[in-house]
Amino acid sequence: GGVGGQLAAGVLHLDLAEENPISLRQIAPELTTADTVVYKMTEFGAVPTETGTCEHRWNDWARAFDRMLATATETDDPLHIHIFGRAAQPIVTYAGLRLAGSSHALTVHNHRRGTALFDAISAAKVTVPQGTFFPVDRSHSEGDPTGMLALFIGMGQGFDPNMARRFLQQQNMACAGIHELNTRDDSLQLAADNAPAALWHIRRTVTELQQRHVQSRGLALFLACPFTMAFALGRAINPHALGTIWLPIFRRTHNEYRPALYYPRHAPRNDRTRIMLMSASPKNEPSVDVQMHHRDLRDALKPVEGRFDIDHAPDCRGRDFLERISSFR
User: Fold this and answer.
1) For the packed helices 195-212 and 227-236, what is the interaxial angle rounded to 10 degrees?
2) Which residues are CB-contacts of 328 (< 8 A; sequence separation ≥ 6)?
3) What is the pLDDT along the chain (329 residues), one digit of tens a residue?
4) How far apart are CA 234 and CA 219, in angstroms?
5) Is-above-0.90 flag for pTM?
6) Cα torsion at 250, 256, 258, 263 (round to 10°)?
């Protein structure tokens, strides 16, 4: 594919914000091949909002992105995929996660704050840095080893670990640990020259968190970073080794994080596994030592007891069965 030996370009436009939209013309200088096809999420069923964020459309947007990506990559020829647009961080990171492991060349474009410039960052380049991109690199707490890990990635914004902890609690999920990667202030811009180092730092941190918390259920990403980093970090990490990845959204009006997207794209089982133990000693049968069997069961489950709760229903009668099952939620 392509013209004159160049890769064909597939441009994925995340056109979810009606306010201050970004047009193809603004990134056109980076598109150096005549063999270019542009795909827009709104052409695949996405309904935009004023600011590119929403309350209830996240899964619809993710499905629209999936359809757009499937159409763009249905060719067997290699592509150079370009990502740009205006959209909230959960859907941008979701796009990066969907392209993790892709063999296609990837470039993400973003308007540099306070200028007329557009940064074009290769999402494939992850290199060992000469210095430190994130001088703030710290763990805030350790918790239940079988809970979710929380990772905050910011560019100088303040971070309150209690907000991440509170979000997980609201989802009935324990917290395995909270880690922060941040810059000292918001003057640092993510650009082509420092993005590979930033992505290397993120990848190393995620790998170390996995190794330190081997029983954790997954990773919740709390982001305060530009479009380019939100996409590229999804591309840089290995989602298949992490379990479920949660992508919440920060609501300034409520000063809290709210659920938005998950990867893989389905609502997770975020509550602990519960086992109902129903026992009885029928009058017309030989005596059963219910307590002994109960102890034997608990002893057998002891190696993994931190992963579930047991709800014991003793002296259960037949007519109690449906009532107990219907209330077991």
Assistant:
1) 50
2) 274, 276, 311
3) 555 557 899 999 999 999 988 888 888 888 877 789 999 999 999 999 999 999 889 999 999 999 999 999 998 888 999 999 999 999 999 999 999 888 899 999 988 777 777 888 887 667 777 778 899 999 998 889 999 999 999 999 999 999 999 999 999 999 999 999 999 888 888 888 888 888 899 989 999 998 999 899 999 999 999 898 899 888 888 888 888 999 999 998 889 999 999 999 875 554 556 677 776 666 666 666 767 777 777 777 776 565 566 666 666 666 666 555 544 44
4) 12
5) no
6) 60
